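ugh ok so i messed up the first submission bc i forgot one of the chains. this is the corrected input, ALL of the components this time, i swear. 575 residues overall. if the numbers dont match what u have on ur side tell me asap before i send this to the collaborators (the ones from the other lab, u know who)
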Amino acid sequence: MRKYMTPGILVSALLLIAGLVAWGATQVVGQKLFGATNAVPWNILLSNYAFLALAASGLCLTVAISSITGNEPLKRVAPLALVLSIASLLGGMMNTFSELGNPLRIIYVILSPNWSSPISLIFFVYMLYLPLLCVELWMLLKNRQEYKSLVTGLALVIGLTAPTVLGTIFAQSSGRPLLAGFAMSVYYLLTAMPAGLALLMLALMLIRGTGAESMESVKAAGRWLAMTLPFLLAALIWKAATLPAGSLESIATFADGFLGRSFWGLAPAIAIGLPFLLLLSKYGERTGILAASAAFILGGSFIARHTELIVGQLVPASPLIKSGSYLPSTADVVIVLGWLGLAALLFQVGIRALGLEQAPAAGSRKAA
Amino acid sequence: MGYGMLIDLRKCSACQSCAINCKVENNVPVGTFWREITMVTEGSFPNLKSLPVNMACQHCDNAPCVNVCPVTATYKREDGIVVQDYDKCVGCKYCMVACPYEARSFNWEKPFKDGHPTYLNPDVPVRPKHVVEKCTFCVHRADAGKPGPACVEACPTRALVFGDIDDPTSEIAKLIKSTGATVLHPEFGTKPRVYFVGLPASLGGGK
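and heres the new structure output, hopefully the right one now
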């Protein structure tokens, strides 16, 4: 029991408790405690959901691709990556669950699903995804080889499907050029891997330290990260290039202020440009640079998810539409911190329960 | 058979009677409007023109809200009216994000917190907190055989006309044809069942 009494677990638990209290308050008093309005109905909970769910998919893809390509340093950390993926996914799902006005009515997705709705689709994708991650983790821990190829293949397919469908949720927003269109799905798909790799790198350094064993995996993840960032930049350029004629200018005007500047400048610089330059530099494999790159990507991804979702909800095309504004309320922030705390708590408890907090001994590594 | 509405902006005096009668008829909560008059300014200084545009749910045939609702709480009736099942609405607000006309409102708190005041219309349910609501073309009146929505009844200049737009012999169908009425933002591809006469070009009207 003592191994669970760590400062990280206690802080995560406290955040979770605070988040649960704030969520309870929104259910009793009403979602007027949110900072959202009718013009901007989705709040920071939705952007935090996208942030965590994309990172979870990135981790799932990292495990599947490292298995297929035989990348040993990353294969070694696959169980830890899967625990992190499961924890992130559950934390992400709780964000969207607590954003629902009537969460228990989610049962109607099963009783009367609407197959044209991406939310229905993602619900069923997650119903497959979560058990599959658990099965994959169990097989890795037990070193079961029977259906390894099948499970890895399925994980790869689901890991690619989940961010694509997540992008489709926002892509079906008529009259909102920043979100609408199939480029959103591609953009989200290519966002997943960098977010997952960055999360894995930081988690490894925090949990297993910066010894040679741990850093070998971190460096391997860093190399993959440097490879995936140009694809993400290309997807962002593609997203901007496929915006309907005139909408780029109208969005820029409409989303003036911090969010507008953040979307067009700050987020791409922090989440893509800066870490890419750092990783390609001659100091790219130093511990501090790897940690800073991963932190920039995660911070930039959080800002990017938030700004694109908030700015994206505005309708710039019509003079009829009232301009909206959104500032996260105290309840919004506390709930988001609570679900981040849940993800951190599940991860820390999970790796301790499964004995993954230390790198496997050399003998057991060879056996695996 | 498919209900629709024609709004002649040339006749609209922006008196807000339609918006107020709608609120009273449908027990619309304080701070929420199912129907609103929005003033749109056209032209450039000094040749400016201010035009009242009557906004509410457009009851689209290709309704994005119906397409995205994960639990089919929003659906289209056979008579063309888009309605909301308040007992099923999960409160995800996806329909609000999907609607390009921003015609939907969310009950962020319990409406009419002072219980069930006597001034409320007993024919229309008071919606609970955390559900999405919007114009229903006064579906309760249509089902009871009344002539049209409350907004149409209230309009002093007869700027609003309601009827079966799918029947070419109906008054509204003839008016749509003869006036060259257009829909709001046809580029959205939503196929609205609300037509406008005198709509500015910036909103989808003719030059």
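quick check: Residues 187 and 236 of chain A are 6 Å apart (CA to CA). that seems consistent at least. The first helix of chain A runs from residue 7 to 29.
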